[in-house]
Amino acid sequence: MSFPLLFDFYELTMAYGYFRAGIHERTAVFDLFYRKGPFEHPYVLFVGLEGVLQGIENFGFGEDEIRYLQSVAPQIRDEQFWDLLRRFRFHGTIYAPEEGTVMFPREPMLRVEGKLFEVQLLETMLLTYVNHQSLIATAAHRMVEAAAGKPVIEMGARRAQGVDAAIDGARAAYIGGVSKTATTEAGRRFGIPITGTMAHSFVLAFHRDVRSPDQAKEAELQAFTAYAEAFPDQCLLVVDTTDVERSGLPNAITVFRKLREKGYEPIGVRIDSGDLAYLSRVCRKALDEAGFPDAQIIASSDLDEFVIRDLLAQGAPIDAFGVGTNLITARSDPALGGVYKLAAIEWEENGERHLSTPIKLSENPTKVTLPGRKNVVRLLKDGQFVGDLIMLEDEEDPKGPLRMIHPEYRWKQKVVTDYEAIRLLRPVYRDGRRLIDKITPDTARQTAAQSLAQLSPEHRRLHMPHEPHVDLSDALYERWMAEIHRRRMEKVQ
Amino acid sequence: MSFPLLFDFYELTMAYGYFRAGIHERTAVFDLFYRKGPFEHPYVLFVGLEGVLQGIENFGFGEDEIRYLQSVAPQIRDEQFWDLLRRFRFHGTIYAPEEGTVMFPREPMLRVEGKLFEVQLLETMLLTYVNHQSLIATAAHRMVEAAAGKPVIEMGARRAQGVDAAIDGARAAYIGGVSKTATTEAGRRFGIPITGTMAHSFVLAFHRDVRSPDQAKEAELQAFTAYAEAFPDQCLLVVDTTDVERSGLPNAITVFRKLREKGYEPIGVRIDSGDLAYLSRVCRKALDEAGFPDAQIIASSDLDEFVIRDLLAQGAPIDAFGVGTNLITARSDPALGGVYKLAAIEWEENGERHLSTPIKLSENPTKVTLPGRKNVVRLLKDGQFVGDLIMLEDEEDPKGPLRMIHPEYRWKQKVVTDYEAIRLLRPVYRDGRRLIDKITPDTARQTAAQSLAQLSPEHRRLHMPHEPHVDLSDALYERWMAEIHRRRMEKVQ
């Protein structure tokens, strides 16, 4: 069996450093969280948990892996350390919200507890899965939001950053709300709905010795006819190979009429270039006049949430949107900056065990971490989100009127009453075994939809959204300030 | 054996459409090319060929795949078609430049010839590999260019768009010129150099019951000491966990002195936050004064080519740059828009076979394709690039004085003489077998370096570079215009 070495090399050198210092088996707590949403969006959909759980099950070291690592780290000669790796199996505990949940900056999305060296070695793998998939799900959500109820179809595999990006990206996009994907393997692997009809090459393949525009039009008609014969009940034709108004559209209508004679109704047409508002109107009018008011118009061509919104604002009669590059790469902001930071570490003194809660001060204030074992409580009132409270795990859930205080702007406060408090992180993996069933894309998609439905339209706005209330419990805030002041060094200039 | 279904579903529906029309086995020629460089860069490094060749060898359909496809395409009931897939093995020919070669917009980077349905089914896979890896190699090249001879280290796995993006991205970055990667699996799989030392968590793990800044400083010293004991000859310390000037740097110097007493010289320090120009100067001065002029300063923290260039322009004494997110996602322009377009298709008439050379007109002029079987000739004069000529494969190489004419601005012309003409595309796969040896990252890296060395600094400039001459041969230009006029329909408004 072969194991991919999904870690940054420094996770190995650190593991060995811990080992040499004799602290590698101390209990450590790491948080995975992000500091700033992508696209200036106030939240992300937490996606990637199923990948994480499968990744942990496949995380290990065979003899091939050990040999390679020994070749690149010849300084490590302790056979005991290599034996530790040979026996590696993650025995810690992972806490996470349900896959698909809306999560805000600073909130732990994973809390990972276990032996220091084990927890350290998982760092990159956890981040890669969660960062990538949460990003794409959130990008998809924004496009679906812009489409205001019209279906959005993911078709970006060819521009994805590698094969995993295409396949896992399609899954994430589905969780974020797209209706279907063009990526066949994502359909096979995850059971999500797939779709596909024809590209321009299908039309051009019928361009037999074309010598005039009339012959080009005739060739397109042949192509459409061939496609309709192959898929009479799934006839969606791409109409912009040469000229939408003068060739593609009239040809499509000709074929649709023949289909109807045979008892089939067409799906519609796809436009992949030109001005989509103008061309969709031209198509709609012609299709309606020809007696095909139910034939759909699918638009694609470098769409993103803002183009979709503008097209609909102009009343473009588009029934579904195909999105490629901008979704599958989250083009306008292609990385979620999730990080993985030590929040607590066990120490022994005179035979007693203590948990320290160190923080990283850093030269950048926004990079200062939050101390301790934490959870997130979502506060709902009449089913609607009123705020989140990041608190210490061992605190009781809040009860009664709660004063929420902005962690930086302390004068920003509000009191919430009559709320329901829901603790978001719960154990999903413990003692070498996952505690939850396999998470299907449909389950996570439903979680996302429910979580999003709790937010107000103000929070979901694409541009300049309302900032949600995410505060720290008093106990956490006090711990945080204490840890800062224990480390802050006086600067004199 | 299981095969990933690395195609968009429409490639399957088109394949069936071709089959039903009886044209699926006609010879077709597709070009893979891009229209506009990423980052407004005038060229890309062509990378991904090794992935393509391995992908083709693994492209097929087992019974599991057929069953899945039958379940999603129940309309396809021809058992003959499914048998075609069961027997699928790509029997066509692929032409490509050497992996690593500089390629310009519109130039075919892959020319794929074979049976129409086979060539169509490869579309997405070819595009995904070439688009992603060429993009990352080009992004890396820009950062390496900005670093002006200082090493650049790739460390972006945690922000990569999935596991493949991390691993194949590290390979592409190495081909583009980075010196090392932090991604262990990329080192193992491709044999490229890896590196790694410590993160802030290593320091925080030693924060035992810290109650004052002095204790925090003491804890950091313990962490550094532990690391130096584990890796005495590889001691690179991250100095910004709490405070560079008051803690990290003095602690590092203390440890470096102890190392020297034991006969070891330190590698240096890493700064990962704050103002890197200021802090690097502070570090340099202190290290020099302490007698460590050879200790290096490594900088990281959201670097890209422009920050690197500006830091060096300000004289920041940084010896190496660690780049993460901005490289591994090509953040400022995260997709290369490569496309795959039909350039020729065989037809039979009265028992004779002809090759048609159709083009896609499209509603966007920039999306008009070039017809025919093409190659690219690179023109060098005294080893330096003077221009590229896209020409028909069956044309002779140019000889003697050559008038190069801009394909759009026809008045832009130049005559080149005494040049060497090098045909870039050569067959790399034929009849089910690759024709070239496995391409190592080092080979492709060398190809890239040689190809880049042919360009002038004006072409390699990061911002507003000089546009290279890439023209069409007269024969190709005439064919192109003829195919356009055969299809252009009169628009009257």
Automatic annotation (TrEMBL), chains A, B:
<dbReference type="InterPro" id="IPR006405">
    <property type="entry name" value="Nic_PRibTrfase_pncB"/>
</dbReference>
<keyword id="KW-0808">Transferase</keyword>
<dbReference type="Pfam" id="PF17767">
    <property type="entry name" value="NAPRTase_N"/>
</dbReference>
<keyword id="KW-0328">Glycosyltransferase</keyword>
<protein>
    <recommendedName>
        <fullName>Nicotinate phosphoribosyltransferase</fullName>
        <ecNumber>6.3.4.21</ecNumber>
    </recommendedName>
</protein>
<dbReference type="InterPro" id="IPR007229">
    <property type="entry name" value="Nic_PRibTrfase-Fam"/>
</dbReference>
<dbReference type="GO" id="GO:0047280">
    <property type="term" value="F:nicotinamide phosphoribosyltransferase activity"/>
</dbReference>
<comment type="function">
    <text>Catalyzes the first step in the biosynthesis of NAD from nicotinic acid, the ATP-dependent synthesis of beta-nicotinate D-ribonucleotide from nicotinate and 5-phospho-D-ribose 1-phosphate.</text>
</comment>
<comment type="similarity">
    <text>Belongs to the NAPRTase family.</text>
</comment>
<keyword id="KW-0597">Phosphoprotein</keyword>
<comment type="pathway">
    <text>Cofactor biosynthesis; NAD(+) biosynthesis; nicotinate D-ribonucleotide from nicotinate: step 1/1.</text>
</comment>
<keyword id="KW-0436">Ligase</keyword>
<dbReference type="GO" id="GO:0034355">
    <property type="term" value="P:NAD+ biosynthetic process via the salvage pathway"/>
</dbReference>
<dbReference type="InterPro" id="IPR013785">
    <property type="entry name" value="Aldolase_TIM"/>
</dbReference>
<dbReference type="InterPro" id="IPR036068">
    <property type="entry name" value="Nicotinate_pribotase-like_C"/>
</dbReference>
<dbReference type="GO" id="GO:0005829">
    <property type="term" value="C:cytosol"/>
</dbReference>
<keyword id="KW-0662">Pyridine nucleotide biosynthesis</keyword>
<dbReference type="InterPro" id="IPR040727">
    <property type="entry name" value="NAPRTase_N"/>
</dbReference>
<dbReference type="Pfam" id="PF17956">
    <property type="entry name" value="NAPRTase_C"/>
</dbReference>
<dbReference type="GO" id="GO:0004516">
    <property type="term" value="F:nicotinate phosphoribosyltransferase activity"/>
</dbReference>
<feature type="domain" description="Nicotinate phosphoribosyltransferase N-terminal">
    <location>
        <begin position="5"/>
        <end position="131"/>
    </location>
</feature>
<feature type="domain" description="Nicotinate phosphoribosyltransferase C-terminal">
    <location>
        <begin position="373"/>
        <end position="478"/>
    </location>
</feature>
<dbReference type="InterPro" id="IPR041619">
    <property type="entry name" value="NAPRTase_C"/>
</dbReference>
